[in-house]
């Protein structure tokens, strides 16, 4: 019998911080942060179809660039 606890799906949750802290299932897109930092542009345009994670990606960026964000988390994002 498998007693491993499964992660919850973040249906309708657009807060990256909540997904990260409450350990929801999430496909890691933090590589976007590294790409934005190293391929800097004066303006960045994010085009995606409806329901394709634009708000969640913006929440992830907001969480990363906030001053009070965990420094270890930032190191992990930039390492990969």
Q: Can you describe this structure?
A:
This protein is mainly alpha-helical. It is built from four helices and no strands. Helix content is 44%, strand content 0%. The protein is globular.
Write the layout of secondary structure elements.
Elements lengths: L15 H6 L9 H8 L15 H12 L5 H9 L1
Please provide a brief summary of the model.
Helix content is 44%, strand content 0%. The protein is an all-alpha fold and 80 residues long.
Question: Mean pLDDT score, rounded?
Answer: 82
What is the strand tally? 0
Name the poorly predicted regions: none
* DSSP strand content: under 5%
Shape: globular
Computed Rg: 14 Å
Give the % helix. 40-55%
Alpha carbon gap, first and last residue: 35 Å
> Major sheet: size, sense and barrel closure?
none
Which structural class should the secondary elements be placed in? mainly alpha
Order of helices and strands: HHHH
Query: What is the tally of helical segments?
Result: 4
Primary descriptors:
80 residues; globular; mainly alpha; single chain
């Amino acid at each position: 019998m498998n007693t491993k606890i499964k992660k919850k799906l973040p249906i309708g949750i657009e807060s990256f911080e909540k997904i990260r802290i409450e350990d929801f299932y999430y496909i890691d897109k933090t590589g976007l942060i590294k790409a934005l930092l190293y391929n800097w542009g004066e303006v960045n345009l994010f085009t995606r179809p409806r329901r394709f994670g634009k708000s969640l990606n913006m929440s992830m960026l907001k969480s990363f660039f906030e001053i009070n964000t965990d420094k270890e988390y930032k190191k992990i994002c930039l390492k990969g």
